[in-house]
Amino acid sequence: MASIMKFTSFALKNLFSKPVTKNYPAEEREYPARARGSLQCKIEDCIFCGMCQRKCPSGAITVDRKARQWSIDRMGCVQCENCVNHCPKSCLKMDVHYSEPDYNKVVTTLEGPPVAPKPELTPEKIAELKAAAAAKKAAAAKAKE
Amino acid sequence: MANRSVVPFGPQHPVLPEPIHLDLVLEDEKIVEAIPKIGYVHRGLEKLVEKRDFNDFVYIAERTCGICSFMHGMGYVEAMERIFDAEIPPRAKYLRTIWCEMSRIHSHLLWLGLLADGFGFEALFYQCWRMREKVLDMFEEATGGRVIFSVNKIGGVLKDMPKEMLAKFVHNFNEIEKELKDLTEVFLTDYSVESRLRGVGILTRDDAIRLGAAGPMMRASGISIDTRSIGYAAYEDIDFDIVTSNDCDSYARCEVRIKEIFQSIEIIRQAVEKIPGGEISIDIKGNPKGEAFTRVEQPRGEAIYYCRANGTKFLERFRIRTPTFANLTPMLYTLKGAELADVPLLILTIDPCISCTER
Questions:
Q1: Domain at B39-358, CATH from 2.60.40.10, 3.30.420.40, 3.40.50.300, 1.10.645.10
Q2: Cβ of A94 under 8 Å from any chain B Cβ?
């Protein structure tokens, strides 16, 4: 007889204890700091080198260097963090929150700020640059010796 | 001769999330023959190795399966490390061992839950999965992922676990162990559970050898083989006995898996005690050339990984031999002569992972 009442202690405990589950979404879940939720890009720092595109195992990231655009297919991203580990400018980072659910496959495109026009070169500026290059060369030669 | 009829089972079945189809040839309620059909989730992951950089392929290798993902990734990187002849830092080996055992715990708890669900004990199923959730939370804290961890790289691991985190995990596992002891009572001594498991699906020791069973399925038939004892990762430094049972039935498979959870908790405790400090990865330079095999003990049994490289950044061949594939033949054998009502249970007791098998 005793062997059919084994689960009773669990059942009684569950009757008088709080629920294990959270009242989501009314109660927010606290994510650990390392959680890989969704990929975020700080587009101001991006140099559009395309490393993340080459390293993405699912091909979710596309980088257009000419148009200065960085885009991600949120549904294609597998949150492996490979791009974050290879970004030379560290402008990619994993946010702990997941991306928003959607009915369609949305591609998020971020556009970098326009490049500041190159300063016009005056004869004084050219001379200054030449002097700096010569000084650098001299320092390198000295270091070699 | 009684009338024969064919009952299709799966690929979608309430008891089993995995897509396997069986044509059950019945004589009254007894199964005379079971004809399997798989191939519903083939994704061609092995072929992808020809198109992806060998360093990035680890993210694809671990997506072979959602339950033993860590070990799939580890099997691949260990094979690649063998090709490079690289010795990884000891701390990385210990971290891999800890994560392997955590994977085993969560896989076995998942299986116990599915088993309870399989014989209609819903409340027991919830208790198992409640415990499993704690392991997943720990995984998320340590690696950032709950199911797919992405912490392996060729030459070590990507993330370290600080001392406090390891101590906290050991404390959590001590609590899980305490709760699991009570739950073990239910699984192993409850009358209703026993009546569903005892004497069902008998696979004798000789049959297990002849049909090539793997993992807990094999160990429940009294064969003491565990790939962990050949010593990959840090298993060389860890003391553990292989869990076996001589009952050869579904009850024995349940018993072996439960005892393996306790053993895994013990291994984690040992690993946390012995873990050395230092680096967690080394840099690997150049392209691989050559071939290598590795064997890894997954929760479901022994998995084999084979890599062949030709000196470019794309491998020529990657091959996985998964434990479920080995266990399909013994499963079909145990199905013969069984009652129709026991079929879901018998399929469950091999802990099938069809996604692994088809890749």
A1: 1.10.645.10
A2: yes
Collapse the DSSP code of A74 into the 3-class scheme (helix H, G, I; strand E, B; otherwise coil) and give the result.
Answer: coil
Instruction: Give me the pLDDT at residue B1, please.
Output: 63
Contact B141 A94 (CB under 8 A): no
Q: Does A78 touch chain B (CB under 8 A)?
A: yes
DSSP A117: P
| Model pLDDT for residues A25-63, shown as the tens digit of each residue | 888 888 888 888 888 888 888 888 888 888 888 888 888
- Residue B171: the pLDDT is 92
ipTM, two decimals: 0.73
Interface probe, candidates B136, B186, B196, B258, chain A, greatest A C-beta count within 10 A: B186
Contact list in B for residue A11 (CB cut-off 8 A) is 123
Q: E strands along A81-139, which residues?
A: 92-95, 107-111
Strand order in the sheet with A61-64: A61-64, A69-73, A107-111
